[in-house]
Amino acid sequence: MKFTVVIVMRRSNWLFWLLCLLLLVPCAYARDVSQADGNLLLTPNHGQGEAWGKARCINCHVMRRLHNSVPEIKEIVENKGFATCTGCHGKNGTQAIQQCLICHNVNDLPANPPRTGKHRHDFNLKKDLPTTSAQCVMCHAASDMDGVFEVRQDLTLFNDKLVGTRAYKDVNDFCVRCHNNGHQQKKWPIKNAGKRDQSKLAEENYLFVDKHGVSDTEKVESSLYPGLRDGYVYNSIVDCVDCHTMHGTENAGLIIDNSLKGVFLLNPALRKQGIAVEILDGVNTNNELVDIADYSQLCVLCHDMQIDNENKQKYGGNHDTGNGLSGVHFEYGSDCVTCHSHGERVQKGL
Ligand code: HEC
Ligand code: HEC
Ligand code: HEC
Ligand code: HEC
Ligand code: HEC
Ligand code: HEC
Ligand code: HEC
Ligand code: HEC
Asked: In sequence order, which residues have a C-beta less than 8 Å from that of residue 263 and are 6 or more positions away?
C-alpha cells in the first residue's frame, strides 16, 4: 500500500525537518511567497522547479482561486489581469517586464505614490525622461505591497563598496549609496554632474555639514529665528525625502510641490491639507521679480519662528510666504541658497 503524508510547514522550521526524518516521508513544503514574511518573489523552487522559467502564468493558475488571504490585492489583480503577476512576484526566471504603472497610476492608485508633475527621479539630471516601470523597480526591487512603506522591505538593497549589503538605517542611507563621491553604484553612476554637484556631495554634506543631516551638534538657544512646527524637533535628522520627492513634482531639483509628497512627520492635520510649495523667483525692495530661488514655502512647512512679536514682525516672521503659512525670516531680494544650501558651512547652511 502506498500513501503520502504531507507536512505543511516552513522549511526554516526545525520541526519540519525532524518530522520528515522521523516519518521518512517525502516532504512537501509550505509556500515561499507570503506577505507576512515580506517575500513575494518567486525562486527556482517555483512549482517544485517545474514552473521556473515559464512566462505564461495563466497556463497553470486560475485567477479566482488566487489571493484569498489578501483581499486588498485580490480585487485590483483581478481587474488588471495576468499582466500584473511579474510586478509583484518577479520575473520567474524569464525576460518578462515587471509592470508597476499598470496599477500605480493616477486612476487606480492616485495617492500611492502621488506622481503628478513633470520632474521625477528618472536617473538623469539633464532630461526629464518618461517614467517607466523599470525605474520603479530600480528603487523597489521587492516590495511586499502591504500598504505600509518600510525602508528595509520596500527599497532595493544596494551593495556598496564600503559597507556591503548592510541593511539601511533609514531612507537617507539608501540615497547615499548612490549619491556619493568615490563609491557610486557601477550600474547607476552619476554621469551628468560636475564635481561640486550635490548629486555627488550629498553623502559628505549629510554626514558632516548639513544641519538637517547627522552633524546636529549645536544647541538651539543661540538661534536667531527658532521654532519648529508640531512633528519636528531640534537635534534630529531630517530625511532627504522630507524635502525631495522621487515620484513627481513641478519643482526643479525634485523639491516637493505639495506637503502630501514629503514632510512625513508633520502634524497630519496640517500635512493632509495638501499645502502647496512653489519655489518663487525673488523680489527686490522695489517688489520687482529677480531671478533667484526663494524656498520659503518649503522651509515654512517645518519652521515656524517663535520669538517676541516685535522681532518677529521685524524679521518678516508674520509674512505670508504665499501658501498660507508664515514663520520664516524674509530676506528681501535675497537668494535663500546663498546662505542656505547643501554643504554651506557658514550662516548655518541647510
Ligand atoms: C507550469 C505551471 C506553472 C506556471 C506556468 C506558473 N506557475 Fe506558479 N505555481 C505552479 C505550481 C504547481 C505552484 C505550487 C502550487 C500552488 O501554490 O498553487 C505554483 C506556485 C506559485 C506561487 C506561490 C509560490 C510559493 O512558494 O508560495 C506563486 C506566487 C506563483 N506560482 C506565481 C506564478 C507566476 C507569477 C507565474 C507566471 C510568471 C506562474 N506562477 C507560472 C505552477 C505554475
Ligand atoms: C499587488 C501584488 C500582487 C500581484 C500583482 C499578484 N500577486 Fe500573487 N500574491 C501577492 C501576495 C501579497 C501574496 C501572498 C498572500 C499571502 O501572504 O497569503 C500572493 C500569493 C500568490 C500565490 C500563492 C497562493 C495564494 O493565492 O495566496 C499565487 C499562486 C499567486 N500569488 C499567483 C499570482 C498570479 C498568477 C498573479 C497574476 C495574475 C499574481 N499572483 C499577481 C501579491 C500579488
Ligand atoms: C530613486 C528611487 C525611487 C524611485 C525611482 C521610485 N521610488 Fe517609490 N519610493 C522611494 C522612496 C525613498 C520612498 C519613501 C518616501 C516616499 O514615500 O516618498 C518611496 C515610496 C513609494 C511608495 C509608498 C508611498 C506611501 O506614501 O506609502 C510607493 C507606492 C512607491 N514608492 C511606488 C513607486 C512607483 C510606482 C515608482 C515608479 C513610478 C517609484 N516608486 C519610483 C524611492 C523611489
Ligand atoms: C496589481 C496592482 C499592482 C501592481 C502591478 C504593483 N503594485 Fe505596488 N501596490 C499595489 C497595492 C494595492 C499596494 C498597497 C496600497 C495600499 O494599500 O495603500 C501597493 C503598494 C506598493 C508600495 C508601498 C509599500 C508597501 O509595501 O505597501 C510600493 C513601494 C510598491 N507598491 C511598488 C510597486 C512596484 C515597484 C511595482 C512594479 C514592480 C508594483 N508596486 C506593482 C498594487 C500593485
Ligand atoms: C541607484 C542609485 C540612486 C539612488 C538609490 C538614488 N539616486 Fe538620486 N540620482 C541618481 C542618478 C544616477 C541621478 C542622475 C545623475 C546624473 O544624471 O548625473 C540622480 C539624480 C538625483 C537628483 C537630481 C534630479 C534632478 O533632475 O534634478 C536628486 C535631487 C536626487 N537624485 C535625490 C535622491 C534622493 C533624495 C534619493 C533617496 C531617496 C536618491 N536620489 C536615490 C541615482 C540614485
Ligand atoms: C544673508 C544670509 C541669509 C539669507 C539670504 C537667508 N537666511 Fe535664513 N538664516 C540666516 C541666519 C544667519 C540664520 C540663523 C542662524 C542662527 O540662528 O545661528 C538663518 C536661519 C534660518 C532658518 C532656521 C530657523 C531655525 O529654526 O533656527 C530658516 C528656516 C531660514 N533661515 C529660512 C530662510 C529662507 C526661507 C530664506 C530665503 C527667503 C533665507 N533664510 C535667507 C541667514 C540667511
Ligand atoms: C521637513 C521639515 C523641514 C524643512 C522642510 C526644513 N527644515 Fe530646517 N530644520 C528642520 C529640523 C527638524 C531642524 C533641526 C535639526 C537639528 O537640530 O538637528 C532644522 C534645522 C535648520 C537649521 C539650523 C537651525 C539651528 O539653529 O541649528 C537651519 C538654518 C534650517 N533648518 C534652515 C532651513 C531652510 C533654509 C529650509 C528651506 C530651504 C528648511 N530648513 C527646511 C526641519 C525642516
Ligand atoms: C530641508 C530640506 C532638504 C533636505 C532634508 C535635503 N535636501 Fe537636497 N536640496 C534642498 C534644497 C533647498 C536644494 C536646492 C539648494 C541647494 O542646491 O543646496 C537641494 C538640492 C539638492 C540636490 C541638487 C539638485 C539639482 O538638481 O541640482 C541634490 C542632488 C540633493 N539636494 C540631494 C539630497 C539628498 C541625497 C538628501 C539627503 C541626504 C537631501 N538632498 C536632503 C533641500 C533639502
From this structure: 231, 242, 243, 256, 271, 301, 302
Q: What tens digit of pLDDT does each residue of 164-186 get?
A: 999 999 999 999 999 999 899 98
Give CA–CA dist 329/120, Å, rounded: 30
Residue in this structure with the C-alpha cell 515587471, named with its chain if needed: 98
Gap between the Cα atoms of 1 and 112, Å rounded: 56
User: What's at 318, amino acid-wise?
Assistant: N
pLDDT band (50, 70, 90) for residue 257: very high
CA separation for the pair 73, 63 (Å, rounded):
12
Measured CA to CA, the distance from residue 229 to residue 129 in angstroms comes to: 36
Q: Tell me which residue of 280, 260, 279 sits closest to 271, measured CA to CA.
A: 260
* Residues in contact with ligand 4 (CB, 6 Å cut-off): 72-73, 76-77, 80, 84, 87-88, 98-100, 102-104, 112, 133, 136-137, 140, 143-149, 154
The pLDDT value given to residue 8: 41
